[in-house]
Write a structure and sequence with these properties.
Distance between the termini of chain A: 112 Å
Radius of gyration of chain B: 16 Å
Oligomer: heterodimer
Largest sheet of chain B: 7 strands, antiparallel
Order of helices and strands of chain B: EEHEEEEEH
Radius of gyration of chain A: 25 Å
Strand content of chain A: 15-25%
Number of helices of chain B: 2
Helix content of chain B: 10-25%
Largest interface: A-B, 28 and 24 residues
Largest sheet of chain A: 8 strands, antiparallel, barrel
Number of strands of chain A: 16
Number of helices of chain A: 11
Structural class of chain B: alpha+beta
Order of helices and strands of chain A: HEEEHHHHHEEEEEEEEHHHEEEHEEH
Chain lengths: 467, 161
């Protein structure tokens, strides 16, 4: 009897060992991607002019370029502007009866916002160090998502919602009140916009986790993350479809990491991570590049998973990504954010990538959330790179040149001119920006015209007058 | 990028633990802004040389100089790397008409030196700072991040004569 039990036990152990040793693989497609900015307000609560004040941001989201008094305050820091000029710009003449777009708030403010340096001719989205700091509300909460990247528990570190101390996410502290990135359940305007573009095909990110032991507990697993050339497939309700197949490219936006799986939760080693960064236009699609990065994947009961990726990102990448996809002033006035304030906040809170030449930190700790939907992640038949869109080459070049000018400016402190094809010079609604932040009428497409109509008109043969 | 100062133009003396008194002196008055910016740049550079990341400006208020009150901490308000409007050093000057030193304080409520600039023969601008290390207290209106301030001013300032 004892012999039989022992034999049965041995068979059971061997069988369990056999099951544990089986190769396994799980795949996911990223269905939502946003900075791990923990919202601490209430979606239904505002107080006076404060938008959703909360424990994260006591006075709510930023209101830069939202009201004349706030604009006047920012422009009063510009040494060459007189108080009369400041007042005239803060309250432009448009009374609703004129159709001159150069006289309205949006164009007046975006033009003035681009020239706030110590000299009238300095474009300060490209040369932000040449302007005074207009000030940025910061996150005051102690709770934040992310990783303990430096292995230390410092007094100012965040505590994770699960109670883990030592969380390094200085990007959240610096930018967590910035209006377009703040909101309940990922409803910040740029969070929505970038995710909408991702779901519409701008870019796709996939994750593949594999191992040879038990998928729930495997200390020698592998996690891959990277760009996929395949558009995200949606179901009949518009949600990201489950179990579609996607290729993963071993491109410059791909990383393979060692990982451990414990009770289903995947934790990677700490290493550099290359993967696509958040984008809402093609011209800003590039490598996010997390130094000393980590990824965690926590499964949900419905088969989906919650991902978190963190590390130190170069502050110059974070800044240029946010500013130059269109133009600093366009985005600043539209989204109620001030990139010069964001620049100073980034530099003030930089806490990684110590530059031995300057003695300053070039990196800022950060974390991003990923909502993961099950998918089949496969290798392409043939090795391939990230496809480029020829039609967008001009805009990409404009972005790259503008970003490069900014990097030169902040690295050398030599004021850089605006590159000729820069996004900063692109007219909007027929209004360009002249030196000193002057709106210039009659440039580029007119107010209300769309690109297709303007291009068609440009290329169309002249039609003879009818007799 | 900033030309070297002539002899006696800039002096710095320790005045306590991590505390320094900085003086910029000259004979050819240009403008209040130019000279105060040069002093601010020297304060930033001194902080960096001392291994600090930021400094706090110590206001030099004499009794009764309360016309412009000290700025209050606002932990819930916007945070800054620096606020130039709170870098408010005290001046001393002599004129051709008055060879003894006269004092002007930004906290007195009196307008800036009313004498004809051409008649100013000597001036001294003084700031006392405390050099700080570690993360900046950016809720303190009198806190200045040294690198950020230096970056802003490096192309703007030159020593007075």
């Amino acid at each position: 009897m004892i012999k039989r039990v022992l034999t049965a036990s041995c068979i059971a152990v061997m069988a369990a060992g056999y099951i544990q040793a089986a190769p396994w693989v799980k795949g996911y497609v990223v269905a939502f991607y946003d900075p791990a900015f923990r919202f601490g307000g209430r979606a239904d609560y505002s107080r006076g002019s404060e938008i959703q004040p909360g424990v994260d941001c006591p006075h709510g989201s930023t209101v830069h370029f939202a009201v004349p008094s706030q604009v006047a305050q920012s422009l009063s820091l510009v040494p060459w502007r007189t108080p009369q000029e400041v007042e005239a710009i803060a309250s432009p003449p448009a009374n609703g009866l004129t159709r001159d777009p150069a006289g309205v708030y949006f164009h007046t403010w975006r033009a003035a916002s681009a020239f706030r340096g110590y000299r009238r001719d300095i474009e300060t989205y490209i040369n932000p160090f040449a302007a005074e700091d207009p000030g940025e509300p910061e996150v005051t909460s102690r709770i934040g998502e992310g990783f303990n990247l430096d292995g230390k528990i410092k007094p100012d570190d965040f505590v994770s919602p699960d109670g883990e101390k030592g969380i390094d996410n200085e990007l959240y502290r610096a930018w967590g009140c910035d209006s377009p990135w703040r909101g309940p359940d990922g409803t910040g305007t740029l969070v929505l916009r970038s995710n909408d573009k991702m779901l519409e095909g701008l870019f796709t990110i996939v994750v593949r986790i594999s191992g040879n032991k038990d998928p729930m507990n495997d200390d020698e697993a592998t996690l891959e993350i990277g760009y996929s050339p395949d558009q995200i497939m949606k179901d009949a309700r518009g949600n990201v479809g489950v179990d579609y197949s996607y290729r993963i490219l071993k491109s410059e936006q791909y990383t393979k990491l060692k990982a451990r799986v414990k009770d289903g939760v995947v934790e990677t080693e700490q290493a550099d991570i290359h993967m696509p960064e958040i984008a809402w236009f093609y011209n800003q699609l590039r490598d996010a590049f997390f130094r000393q990065g980590r990824i965690r994947v926590t499964p949900n009961s419905d088969g989906t998973a919650a991902g978190l990726v963190g590390g130190y990102r170069d502050f110059r990448d974070v800044y240029t990504q946010n500013v130059f996809t269109q133009a600093g002033g366009v985005q600043g006035v539209r989204e109620h954010e001030d990139h010069i304030a964001l620049y100073y906040a980034l530099r003030r809170h930089a806490d990684g990538m110590l530059n031995p030449k300057t003695g300053r930190y070039d990196g800022i700790s950060c974390a991003y959330r990923l909502k993961l939907v099950p998918a089949f992640v496969v290798d392409p038949d043939k090795p391939m790179g990230i496809p480029s869109r020829e039609s967008e080459a001009g805009r990409k070049k404009a972005f790259d040149e503008t970003a490069a000018a900014t990097v030169r400016a902040v690295d050398t402190l030599v004021v850089q001119p605006v590159p000729p094809d820069s996004t900063e010079l692109t007219p909007t609604d027929g209004i360009a920006i002249g030196i000193g932040g002057v709106p210039l009428r009659g440039r580029g497409r007119g107010y209300g015209e769309n690109r297709a109509a303007a291009d068609k008109a440009k290329t169309a043969s002249p039609q003879p007058d009818r007799p | 990028m900033v030309p070297p100062a002539g002899p006696g133009v800039f002096t710095v003396k320790p005045s306590g633990r991590d505390t320094f008194k900085l003086v910029v002196a000259g004979h050819a008055f240009t403008s209040r802004s130019e000279i105060e910016k040069y002093l601010a740049w020297r304060a930033a550079r001194l902080t960096i040389e001392q291994g600090g990341q930021w400094f706090t400006f110590k206001e030099d208020r004499e009794k009764g100089e309360t016309a412009d009150p000290a700025p209050a901490r606002d932990p819930e308000g916007p945070r800054y790397s620096f606020r130039m409007k709170y870098f408010r050093p005290v001046w001393r000057y002599k004129t051709t008409a008055s060879p003894s030193w006269m004092r002007w304080s930004p906290f007195s409520g009196e307008p800036f030196i009313s004498a004809d600039p051409k008649t100013i023969t000597d001036f001294e601008v003084t700031a006392e700072i405390v050099v700080r290390k570690g993360p900046m207290d950016d809720a303190d209106p009198l806190a200045f991040e040294a690198w950020a301030l230096s970056d802003l001013l490096i192309n703007q300032v030159s020593p007075p004569k």
